[in-house]
Amino acid sequence: MPTTKLKPKKVSLTPVQKLARKAVLDNIAVVLDTLEQQASVLNTAPAIVSEADRVASDYDACLDSANLILGGKPVDMGDADWARVVLINKQHLGHKLISPQWTDEDLSLFITAFNT
Fold it and tell me: What gap in Å lies between CA 72 and CA 28, rounded to an integer?
């Protein structure tokens, strides 16, 4: 079965339409460039993180969760939202506290926040 080629339909554009079309095409080019940059980042090999750096990062994240819980509900936050924030951060702390990665780190603040 022979294929028929579609011929581009020619239209007559006003100067304003031509400018609008150019702006759209320029925007598409910018978006494509951004997507290509993101893809190149995703295609790079992951950084190798040392165990000490990973433990330090987890400690900092736990510290953030503990300080958030112990800091109390912000005045502009509703009770239901605050309950959700506390739950999520307690779950985070619970998962991290049972991790075997801890050696001699002080976890007392995390335990206090988890038990609050």
Answer: 46
